Every structure is written in C-alpha cells, then in structure tokens.
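Researcher: Last one for today. Full complex below.
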Amino acid sequence: MIKSVPGLLYVVATPIGNLGDISARAREVLATVSRIAAEDTRHTGQLLRSLGIDKPLVSLHDHNERARSEALIAQVIAGESLALVSDAGTPLVADPGYALVRAAQEAGVRVVPIPGACAAVAALSVAGLATDRFCFEGFLPAKSVARRARLDELKGEERTLVFYEAPHRIVEMLGDLLHVFGPRHATVARELTKLHETVYAGTLETLAVRAQQDADMKRGEIVVVVEGGERAAATTSTDLRRLLGALLSELPTSRAVDIAVAATGARRNAVYRLALEMKQTAPEDTADATQRLSDP
Ligand code: SAM
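Model: Here's the assembly. Have a good evening.
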C-alpha cells in the first residue's frame, strides 16, 4: 500500500469529469496526508466524500496562494504531509499551485507529482493532429481585439497549439482563429470523460460554421487543438537547403545556422531544426566535416 510520507508536498491530479479516472495512488495519497490544499474546498469536499475520504481541507486559490504558501510549507517542514489539488485535472495547468510549489522548493521540501487527468493532454490524444511537438496556450484573452493580437503573434508557430476556452466564447474564438490563421485543421473537444463528450474535427472554417449552428457545441468544458503553421516557405526552399548544406560542410552547426538565418531572413528555430535533419541524413563526408569543425 502507498502511504504518504511526512515532510512532502504531493501535487495530485484529480478527474476532469469521470470519477473513475482517479488513480489508485492519488486515492491513497489523499487518504493518508495530514491535510489537503484545495482550490475550492466545497468542490474537493464532494470528491473526497465520493471516495470515502475525510481530511482537513484548506483553501488555496489565485487570491490567497502567496499569503498562505509560507504557513503551509512551515507545517510540512514541521512534519506534516500536504496534498495540493485543483478543481479538476492537474494542478498548476491553468490552475493555482505555482507559488506553493516554488515556496516548497525554496524551503528544500520535496515535491512529488501524482499524475493523472489533464484536459489538454486528453484532447491532444484524440485530436488527430501532430503531437510530437505542441504548445499549450491556455486561455486566450477574453476580448476579441486582444485575442486577435495574441493569435497574430502565434500565427507562425509550427507546433500544434492547445487552447482552453469557455463555452460562451467558442463561436467568437473559432471565428478569430479562422480570421487570423486561415483554413487550418483543428479539433474541438468538449466534456471529455463525461456523458456528453464530443470531439469535432475539421477545418477551422467548418468548425466555426458548426459552432454557430450547433447549440451543443457551445455547452460544457472545451479544449481547442489547432494544427501548427506551415514552416516558413523559405525554410523548405531548395535555395536554403543548398546554402545550409554548403555551410554545414564547413562550419559548426550553430555558426552555419546563424549565417543562413542572416542570409535568408528565415526563423532561427526552423533553420536549426532543418540543419539537424540535414545532418542526420547528410552523406558521411559532410557529417564528418561538421563533426571535425564542431570539436574544440
Ligand atoms: N487543470 C485542468 C487540467 O489539468 O486540464 C484545467 C483547469 S482550467 C481552469 C479549466 C479548463 O480546462 C476548462 O475551461 C476547459 O477549457 C478545460 N477542461 C477541463 N475539463 C475539461 C473536460 N472534461 N473537457 C474539456 N475541457 C476541459
């Protein structure tokens, strides 16, 4: 049986809807810690009752987290064990907990993750979009002008993008995504793990139209996953490849990348990634030259 250990802070993921998603380890830790810090004590009280657990709860939310963290960590140092939970899913992911975890680290208290549900990861797992690299953006600004400005900054992001959104903003949000990003693929995942779980996949255009017509799509909790932007045209062009190939055969990778970026105006991240790909597939003499020149 897993028992909590005195002097530790546990960061415990709880279900995002379906109670069956609580892990055996989460249950055990919640049942055996000295106390539980919760975003909303009433909400967590219900979860604990359904698990047959009775524990002292202390509230820890965005507005009191800084003030409370020190005292909670002092109790842990004095020999208590503490679990941190949020209303649903993984604490700290668009949820409170950052100040507490940082305070624990600074005080030399070990922080132990008890992993479990996370809406962003659950949505990614069914989105049908690339997951080798993704970028979690959380909630976009609520007002359209600020939202479009943020999306404009994200337009060139090549990784799959993951957003959380409130149901009453989904129509506007999809409209802004379409306006700024154009016709990319996306997935809207709502009410994951719950009775009305629905996953809509398509282009931003079809999803934006559907959100206007389908009342269900505007209900419940929602994650939006959007395909990343295409690599800048310059970074896949034959010219860039040729230039980079020549530079890589004579120079260390980062120097070759710097020169290619300066010469083409392409983004450094993309050129660097391309350089690594090219090195992997390079004929031996190029790879050797790169290796030789990189050595001190
Ligand atoms: N910490 C949580 C996690 O690990 O996913 C997220 C907390 S954040 C305050 C709440 C947002 O997560 C919701 O507004 C929604 O965008 C998303 N979310 C939470 N549960 C969800 C679910 N069952 N289905 C879809 N989205 C969900």
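Residues 16-17, 86, 88-90, 93-95, 118-120, 164-166, 189-194, 221-223 surround S-adenosylmethionine (CB under 6 Å). The radius of gyration is 24 Å.
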